[in-house]
Amino acid sequence: MKSNISTILSLGFLGCLLTVTASAQKASPHETTTATIAGKKITIVYGRPYVKGRDVWHTAVAPAGKVWRTGADEATKFTTDADLMVGTVHVPAGTYSLFTIPSGDTGNWMLILNKTADQWGAFKYEEKQDLGRTAMKVKKLSAPVEQLTITVEPGKGSNGTLKIAWADSEASVPVMVH
Q: What's this model's pTM, rounded to 2 decimal places?
């Protein structure tokens, strides 16, 4: 009996150790970025992958023309405590997942806000759960950005800009608080 209890406790400890180790081994650091526009808070939580010399737009990392989690690990999470317009999409206060369909460094990207806030990557992404999609303007950067960076920059009054910069591209879309 004593041996069984020791075995069970040992297996339990090993299971806990493996869980902690697996969650600590994410390849990309994670970041929370917050901005305030017209007194209202917008928060984005995302994994920040590195380019590491890869052609990110033409590989499985962030494939041009396909839905991308816009980060690493979990889908990027977008939270607002006020109703917004993000490009042409009306976004009620709440939490959503944020995806994009990148076009690389040419043409427009598509920003997607999805009602299923908690999901791993884009593996179980369902278009029918989209709150909406809107075009993002893309510009080629003069200097590359090694680590994915998402920001919300406050503008005048109730306006701001959501920016996603990585590799040689920056995609942006206007944000307006209602």
A: 0.81
